Amino acid sequence: MVVLDATVVNVALPSIQADLHVSDSSLQWIVNAYTLLFGGFLLLGGRAADLIGRRTLFIAGVVVFSVASLINGLATSEEMLIGARGLQGLGGAMLSPAALAVITTSFAEGAERTKALSVWAAIASGGSAAGLLLGGIITQALSWEWIFFINVPIGVLTVLAALRFVPNSRVESAAARRHFDIAGAVSVTAGLVVLVYAIVKAEAWGWASVETLGFGALAIALLAAFIWIERRSPAPLVRLGLFRMRSLTVANGVFLIVVGGLFAMFFFASLYLQNVLGYDALETGLAFLPITVGIAIGATIAQQLVQRIGVKPVVLTGMTVAALGLGELAMSTSVDGTYLGVLGGLLPMAIGIGATFVPLTLVATTNVAPDDAGLASGVFNTSQQIGGALGLAILSTLATDRTAGLIADGTGQQQALVEGFQLAFVAAAGLIAVGAVILALLLRKSDVEKIEAGEADAIPVGA
Q: Do the beta carbons of residue 240 and residue 230 sit within 8 Å?
């Protein structure tokens, strides 16, 4: 339910925009409000589960998520919808790490836990892949409101099942339970929200305006406050010393950049298929199915090649293929374009992303001490959410600015939209290329020795 809701809304965006009269610049907030609150409070959710009780926080998260879903479905304005999407993201940040903690503490280490975690990974991957298709089916058959309403009965059943079947374990150490880094979570989330807001509004205000610079400075101040808090907290949300590990820092930085391009691709490809090619919601969901197949192909190839030819060649090849796919997507999109042209870009992009994510996950979690395994996994998940939000904010602002400028110069609406999308796809390819350069320059062979020797397993992370 949590993973699905990160993607299900993409297909419904044109319907939501038409019903609630959402502006082009505000449309991305329907995605980003969820992503930012989810990513910003994810680490706090993991620690809260350990201290308050895993089942307690899991149930609380399901309740918050379900109530927010109900409000989303009842929304009558963009402000109401965006606010409820943020609340939904907060619920996800509470229940997702609690669910994983329940699994790891309920099953004995070894084959039993491995099987349970495999089910977890399969559900997470399936939810992400099914979100686009399910969003299309529900929006077409019922209405966009039902992509949110459907969570309510699922939430009720989940709470009842959790009360019956899920144990309520927690950390019993009194010393560990004294400290709760709420200030850290609030400061980093507020800093990211303000930063995204400044990027989005820069189109209207101007990049060098007092308003843009002022909000940018406030965002930097909040993020600096987060670092200050973490350095002095007796139980920090993120132990900053972890980032001295080059493999972890490089992998998370590259992943943040790559996901920024990927989130934007889903957003703009969905709008292109519906607003330009005239696809309905169901057709759009079906159009994205080859991405699931492509990612599976790329991931399978990567798993087989990592130990044979090395981590860096696999990752760099995957990123190159993904960037070329996005470049092809930019060239094949036009006012009179076809789905075959779109598929020619989507499929190689998906294969490249699949070949990129598997080794990057391994790099991000190798060389990590067992006591830091949960933190490393949480940081990697957080990088995914924050990277997606920032990337979408930047690329959406560029595309909207391009479209508005062309319309002001007399270009037709459809042509202006397409050229905005093309710029976003090229910029997304550029982000992935930048990530490839960073990885090529900074990741050393010594950082990945365990992986290439077959001694490292990926710690479970979100899909």
A: yes
